[in-house]
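Researcher: Checking consistency across runs. Here is Glycosyltransferase again:
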Amino acid sequence: MKTTIGHKHQPKFDIHPFYVPIKTKFWISHSFSFLWMCFSIYLAYPWLMDLADIISFPFALIIIAGISYIPGYMNAFLIASLLLDKQPPFKHEYPSEPITLLIAAHNEEDNIVNTLHYVSKQDYHGEIKVILINNCSTDQTVKRALEAKKELNLDLDILHEEPPGKFHALNRGLTAVKTSYVITLDADTLLHPSAVRFLVARMKSSPSDVCAVAGSVLVKNSRENIWTKIQEWDYFLGIASIKRLQGLYQGTLVAQGAFSLYKTAAIKEVNGWPDAIGEDIVLTWRLLEKKWKVYFEPLAVAFTEAPSTLKHFIYQRSRWARGMIEGLAEVKPWQQPQLYTKYLTGINLVMPFLDIAYTFFWIPGLILAFFGFYWIVGPMTLLVLPLTLISYSILYMYQSKYVFKRLNLKIRKNIFGFILFILGYQMIMSPVSVYGYFQQFFHVERRWK
């Protein structure tokens, strides 16, 4: 996405003429998605019977549930929730509380100067203390950071943490935090000039039981090649839509380490970041387990470096899948104290089944359909596609009108990447996720980078 810097006044979010409680939105969305699933089951009954004649009824039911019924239900729930969601206006749009920004870095000499440059350009009215934690770097990361500190006149301290691992680095930085709020930022992530301000503003405008606010992370290198072009849409539409859904129900499941704000006391209460490959996932679920709430702020935008090769993409996304399994093992959904977080984390129990069904049933079924055998993939499977396009259209309009317009950003033209994202992205994502599940099951050695 292209950035144009500006500070002219922009209109605030529209407010619904009357308030609809979150619990009401939750059950309205479920009612709509349940009716949609009933409709799809009715339409797909002949398909189910035909497939049952070939492979038995129970097996046919499992396959169709995994590639049609459940995905349709989840997409319908997403659509209804997005339509009912309305981001409340800020009560304090220009906060001035001092904050600390933690950057864990391992061999980031090519990125750290640019990252610090964007930190120095924030329009935040309060003091920003930057702590860079050097974690076993063998390049010139520290030297480049010190040069940037002098050139940009940053309030920057550099700490060193020898045990490898991002969680080690962040916990080392946490010991030096003196402020009530702390932000984590990846060393290759660039901040929009208002990113910190909007992140803190959302926290200051939220109820006292909100302990973290996840920022909106988008792709900065989308023009690099086809892989980054596809991922641009995943971040812009796919991940953002899930974040908005979870934020509506006060249980954003990942306050991602790439760019999120936390109450320092809350982090310390759960003993900091855990020893996990998905340290931010497990941390967030521990916070939710303590009856805290986690919000999402779409205006707090940061731009990250997406993997530009298939190898690095597979590593990143399989790591995310492993992190989800770690979170489920650490904090069971039924242990969550709030209805919404029980449901949201419970969805993750279904995700391995859906990814396995897509990988081992839908993809082979697509190949069979190519040769004229519509046993698994046929016209009925296309029922999921309209829901997907509707949900992405809703989010596209929201991102364009309420986020990019207000931030003076422009959406890049990336039609080819969008087509590939819609038609082929899941055929890559599901097998990669399954690979991550198997890695976790067989306890494959973890690594940060």
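Researcher: Does this match what you'd expect to see?
Model: One thing to look at in this run: Residues 41 and 69 are 7 Å apart (CA to CA).
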